[in-house]
């Protein structure tokens, strides 16, 4: 498979409060290969999150096409799209969106039970494995109000990985975290990527984008520029950061 996701002439328009058409995305052409770590950056309101929602089938495009594994999302039914997101895609958002009436372990296994891909015993074992891997296994019986923001985000990542998705979508996953916890979360994402996962991440933070292989910069609904950094290596992080910051500065960000 050459491309996991591919778009052509992708556009999105919505009705504004004044009754006029407002263009959110314009003529987007992009492709993401299996195993890539791609970041979308840009000023607030440029269309970053809308693009992520389009690529994952959460929202429908006005024009153009989106292919996932060669299949047009527009040709899938709502039921098929829901099943696709549940079984082949993982999602991490700025806020955890975990259920307050469930403890962390039950929140993590919920989507896997819904997917019905594995027996419950295997689901429970995978949840335990992921929680150990992300160092929150000791918090399995805790509720949302009993853990920190960083621990909640780790639980969200566990939940997103439960069904072994082909791609992980992350929308400002560190936006509500302090710098230390942000670094911890990005270490987790780097590890997930090194194990072969495909990641598409939206962020405004250059230190977060630094971990990705390729960065797409959006402005006014369009992809204005692209920077390929290659595989992240801690030993060259300083030079990598200088290059990224200069590129962003040249773009007026």
Radius of gyration: 18 Å
Contiguous uncertain segments of 5+ residues: none
Shape assignment: globular
**Tally of helical segments:** 8
How many strands, what sense, and barrel or not for the largest sheet? Answer: 6 strands, mixed
Please tell me the overall pLDDT: 94
Strands, count: 10
* Distance from first to last alpha carbon: 35 Å
Range of helix content: 25-40%
What are the secondary-structure elements, in order, as H or E? EEEHEEHEHHHEHEHEEH
Strand content: 25-35%
Report strand order across the widest sheet. Answer: 6-7-8-3-9-10
**Class by helix and strand content?**
alpha/beta
Structural write-up:
There is one protein chain. Helix 3 (104-115) packs across helix 4 and helix 3 runs parallel beside helix 5. This protein has 8 helices and 10 strands. The model has no long low-confidence stretch (mean pLDDT 94). The strands form 2 sheets. The protein has a 6-stranded mixed beta sheet with strand order 6-7-8-3-9-10, sandwiched between helices. Strands 2-1-4-5 form a 4-stranded antiparallel beta sheet, with helices on one face. It has helices at residues 48-55, 78-88, 104-115, 120-133, 149-161, 179-194, 206-209, 237-250; strands at residues 5-15, 21-32, 37-41, 63-68, 71-72, 89-93, 167-171, 198-202, 214-219, 222-228. The chain is of the alpha/beta class.
